[in-house]
Design a protein that fits this description.
The chain is an all-alpha fold. The longest helix has 15 residues.
């Protein structure tokens, strides 16, 4: 299982060092609407979670995604 930062890094094509818990579409220009859809799909595949439309509205940062995955009992490396 990939670390969450690695997954985001690969999809957004940014260095992992640029990503933190506070990373969001507001401060990572590569995190646009298309990449957001790809991220959702890849997170669901990689971590075996289902992300509803309601969840999408709540997941505003990389830290939010990390906590969401952990809340489903999945051990995820940041």
């Amino acid at each position: 299982m990939k670390s969450l930062r690695k997954l985001f890094s690969e999809i957004l094509d940014v260095k992992t060092q640029k990503l933190s818990h506070k990373s969001s579409p507001q401060n990572i220009s590569e995190w646009d609407s298309v990449n957001n859809l790809i991220l959702i799909s890849e997170i669901e595949k990689e971590y075996g979670v289902v992300i509803t439309i309601e969840d999408v509205y709540k997941l505003k940062s990389l830290g939010d995604v990390y906590e969401f995955i952990k809340s489903h009992g999945i051990k995820v490396k940041f």
